[in-house]
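Case study 2.
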Amino acid sequence: MTLPHLSDKERLEIEKKFYKHMCDLFMEMIKTMTISEKEINRRFVITNIELIAEYEAKGKSVVLMCAHYGSWEWLINIAKKINFRSIGVYKKIGNKYFDKLIRDIRSRLHAELVETKRTVELMEYNAAHGIKAFYGFASDQSPQLMKAKYWDDFMGFEVPVYTGAEMLAKRLDMNMLFVKVRKIKRGFYEATLMPLVDNPRDYPDYEITSLFLREVEKQILEQPEYYFWTHKRWKHIGKKAHAPKTKQTS
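Prediction:
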């Protein structure tokens, strides 16, 4: 049971608010096909956009971590504020028509997309050729059980966790930011960039991933109705004993 500190009545109210918010998300996705730059900047405000320039001045590519919270689709609007390349990592959708629609919508906001299976190849190529970029990772979903390398406590349950963002940041010497999103009212959001870690190689394996999860938890607990609860984050609860054993890698 998630949110155990709440009563059944309170959880039911959050559930109702979530489904209303999910309907808003679909409407916003459709709106993105025609929305003007002025209008989306009015509706999705990045409160400290100056931090982008500060991180670009450090001369390193950046891993930008976020959760499926609030409006992650409109978060891609940050691409227009970045001088480096802006690349969003995404999992290809099985329906090719819907996948094309999503790619068209996101590219309209000047974000490049790379499928998860091509991410390492692209990032290593860019690093070898001196191409600087911000790489967006929504790393709060559940990996396949057979590929799970690390388990952590998340919202009171031990779950497998994606670690690719951390490991790539270490391998390619990138700084890391977290994006916290708040829904102000219907159709309006604020995003705040938060330094997660600089020099990730200085941290033990999986510590940064755990730091990311703690930030996501804080965000959820503030306004739980805006988390994307239907993406089966906890589908592998109780299965750790059956997961394959893997070695830690840097």
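The chain has a mean pLDDT of 88.
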